[in-house]
Each structure stands twice: as structure tokens, then as C-alpha cells.
Amino acid sequence: MAKQGSLDSASTAEDRVEAKITPIVIFSCVLASTGGLMFGYEVAISGGVTAMPGFLKKFYPDVYASTQKLNTNSNYCKYNNQSLQLFTSLLYLAALVATFFASYTTKRLGRKKTMLIAGVFFIVGTVLNAAFHDLALVIIGRILLGCGIGFGNQVVPLFLSEIAPTRIRGGLNILFQLNATIGILLATLVNYGAAKIKGGWGWRLSLGLAGVPALMLTLGSLIVVDTPNSLIQRGKLDEGRSVLKKIRGTENIETEFAEIVEASRAAEEIKNPFRNLLKRKNRPPLVIAIAMQVFQQFTGINAIFFYAPILFASMGFGNNASLYAAVITGAVNVLATIVSVFLVDKVGRRMLLLEAGIQMFLSQIVVAIVLALKVKDHSNNLSYGLSILVVVMVCTFVSAFAWSWGPIGWLIPSETFPLEARSAGQSVTVCVNMLCCFVIGQVFLLMLCSLKYAIFLFFSAWVLLMSLFVLFLIPETKNVPIEEMTERVWKKHWFWKRYMDDHYEGDGVK
């Protein structure tokens, strides 16, 4: 039996090597990954908008008044307002709830239609954000945008992992994160320009231009093919076989087709997919998915991108300088993510995660030391040279995150769950990610006010912890076919292999 298993594995590997990198796969992945563009734009746009005087005057006059009293308010505390933070973080609370509905549509309606739903939510939310004068309607728009993020972040990584050939699955999946970084950069550029518009209405332009990526995702969802995994799971075997031949560029797809059919059969036997996640054999990918989302957010990265202009202003940068520094970090974010596209399937997931942990830890320590020594509560004492050092260290941190925890935090969960648990597992992944985004978005300004420079020490402690987690508990998944993770990854890992024994009776749960 062992010999036969090895022959089957070799046969599978040989079959998959023949799979070509076809234009339809590249085209579909590029279109689908615009969901990441929308996500990134929304992550970054609110930080710049909430720093614009015109927006604050209209909706948060108390905060605006606070920002003008520089002699009576700590640099670290002048933007601290729970209502203002809710404008940013409500997006992620809505996404948290929406992802569970997206789990159902992803499984029952398919990946393609779920992307369409996300696009519609984005468009309606954008209109409400940009066109109305009432704060309540703007908040409703934020909720709808959050629903779009919940649906988009649920379906796009799954779509990319399922449609991509094994040998470039990592690179194509990272297109989602690459688009997210491009969205962040575009948002910072838009905010930089919109802040200079006379009349105080630039915030409307910032929020309204979200309609461009929203429209791109909506149109893209109408054009792309659905994944063979989704089609076969919904009983469309002939269509699934036809699409598989088309995207692989070969007639020799029977091994992969049989694997998907078998995985689909197993998935159909699952009546409660979320309860199925708690089965012993699903614990390794579930624990890793949850842990990676917590660690990804508690690196402090979204604190930087949510509130980059505010953060740099608190460090002592002027308004224009803070927006300019945010643009620089956004550009670094994009370039470093491109690095990950080319490296993730060559050097592997673990190597990038471990190297980045060291780089992020050291850069945060340096920023904390500079701020502790030079930035006081009521004065801006950063010299030109130290300002450059802070920006360089923040960029060092951002680049490390961008080629590691940013894309790989989404990649590993999307490729490690078995088909019967994949949709539910991705929902939990998105849910935890959005919950952490909400928490960080809601408390960051309060933490900045309370901890001051020590907030970077707080995040660096998390970076150290997550690096140890990678070292001991995250397996390497590069070049492993998505339906063979159990046999080739989990059953061979020093710790997780104990959860792969269906007859284990240690805790009575199977």
C-alpha cells in the first residue's frame, strides 16, 4: 500500500507538471484580484480622510477643534476620539459578519457569483460614502463597503488558489495582496492630492474614487470562469472537466479531476461545514489560519496604514510631510509585494516569514527608541535626519511585512484546508482577520495616546511571538498540490501529524 501510495503521488506530480500557464488563468486571476485593490484602497483611504480638516469640520467638529489646539493637547492624543475611530473600524466589523454569508454563497452559488455580490456591495457603499451629507448615510455606506470586503476577501483567495497551477499557486495567490498594496498606494496618493483641494471637499473625491476598483471587480466577476473545484462541488461535472482542460491547457487532467471529484464527494457528506472544522483532522489548518490572522494584524501594519498620516503627524511631521511619508511607505509596500510574487514559490513560505520577523522586530525597536528620546507630548523635536531615519525604519518594517506576512497570511489558509472545509475555513480566516482589524482600528489611537512610543514595543513583542510560532508550527507548503496537503504536509509534520490519525482517542473527538 505504501508503494502504491508513492506511485500515485508520483503520477500526480507528473500529471501536474504538464499543466501549462495559460492566458485564461492569468487573465482570470488578474481580474479576480481587483478585489484586493478595493480592499487595500479602503484600508488606507479612511486614515487620510479622517485627517482632512474639511471632513473633520463637517462630521467631527470636536476632533477638528482638538487638532487646532496644539499647545494643550499631546501630540499622541490630539486625534483620540472613539467616534472617529469607529468610522474606520466599522468597515471591518461589517466584513466580519458578512463573511459567514459569503461562506454560503461561495459554496452554493460559486466563486464567480460571490465576487459579483462583493462588487455590488462596493459600488452602493461608495455612492453613499461620497455623495451624501448626512453622517448616518455615510456610516451605512461604510457598512456596505465592509460587506463587500467580507465577500471579496472570502472568495478571491479561494478562487486564486483553486484556479492556479500548483507550481505558481503562491505567486498567483499573492496577486490579491499585491492589488491590496496597490490600492493602499493609490489611496495615499489620492489623499495627498485631495487634501490640497480648496473648499474642503477633497474627502469626497477620496471616498468617491473607490468606485473605480469597485466597478473593475464587478465587471471582472462577469467575465472570469468559475473554478473547476466550485463547478464540480455544485454537481456540474462536465462543465468542471471542460474548464479544467481549458485552464490547464492540456487534455491530460484526469488525475486532478479525480482528486477534485473525490474531494467534492467528501464535501457533500458534510452537513454542517462549521462543525466539521472542529474535527480533529481539520485542527492544524484551522489553528494556523486563526493564528496567522491574529499575528498578521498585531504586527501593527494596519495601524500604520489606517492612520499613516495621523501617525506621522503624531511623530512630529507636518501635515504635508506626513502625507508624503505615507505615500513613500505605500510605494515600498507595492514593490516589496512584487518581490514576494517571485520568491514565494522558490524560497518557500517559511523562509520569507522568518526573515521578515527579524527585520520587523529590529525596525520597530529603532522607531521606539527614536520617539522615546526625541518626541515629547507638546513639541515636535524630530530633526530632519531623525525624520528620515523614522521613515526608513517604517519602510523597512513595511517591506518585510509586504513580502511575508501580508500575502502569506492569506495564502497559507487558502491552500491548506481540504475542499469540504475550505469555504468555512476561509470564512473563519476572514472573520478573525476582520475582528483583529476592527480591534486595531478602534483602539489604536487610544493606545497611541496611552502608550506613546511604547506602542512600537507592544507590536514588536507580537512580532517576536509570531516568529517563534512560524519556527515550530508552520509547515512548508510550496509546490504541494492543493488537494494533497493532508498526505504530504500534515501527516509529515513533527507536531501536526498526531491530528491526522482518525482513530486517535486521546480526547474523544474525531
TrEMBL record:
Belongs to the major facilitator superfamily. Sugar transporter (TC 2.A.1.1) family. It is a multi-pass membrane protein. The keyword Cell inner membrane does not apply. It comes from the Eukaryota. One of its GO terms (cellular component) is membrane. Keywords: Membrane, Sugar transport, Symport, Transmembrane, Transmembrane helix, Transport. The keyword RNA-binding does not apply. It is found in: Membrane. Residues 28-478 form the Major facilitator superfamily (MFS) profile domain. SUPFAM superfamilies: MFS general substrate transporter. One of its GO terms (molecular function) is symporter activity. Its main location: membrane. This is Major facilitator superfamily (MFS) profile domain-containing protein. It comes from Prunus persica. PANTHER family: IP12678P (PTHR23500:SF357), SOLUTE CARRIER FAMILY 2, FACILITATED GLUCOSE TRANSPORTER (PTHR23500). PROSITE patterns: MFS, SUGAR_TRANSPORT_1.
